[in-house]
Amino acid sequence: MKKLTEKVLAFRDERDWKQFHNPKDLALSLVLEAAEVLEIFQWKQDMGAIQNAARERKEDLADELADVFCYTLLLANDLGIDLEQALESKIEKNGVKYPAEKAKGSNKKYTEL
């Protein structure tokens, strides 16, 4: 994760873009890129069509996911958030909210289990 963050920061710094990267605009960019991931699946109604779109547009999907990841790395770096630690913590919290014995095979929210 650290090496990827360093690459993204170097890319940004070579272009002097940090001046445009305030937390609000990074968060906005992250959401916009996530919407582009969703757009790949827009209007697909059945699982076959969804899977077909993922296969046919795999490169586009990879690019959009990379954009989401890039903005996530930048936002976390700029706000001093250790993403590895944050993910470990979130998995632990979700383990409490969604114990396997109650959540297995269910799509219910933790408040409904």
TrEMBL record:
Residue spans crossing the bilayer: none
Key words of the record: Hydrolase
GO biological process: nucleoside triphosphate catabolic process
Molecular functions per Gene Ontology: nucleoside triphosphate diphosphatase activity
Domain of life the protein comes from: Bacteria
Pfam family membership, one: MazG-like
Protein name: Nucleotide pyrophosphohydrolase
Classification of source organism: Bacteria, Pseudomonadati, Pseudomonadota, Gammaproteobacteria, Pseudomonadales
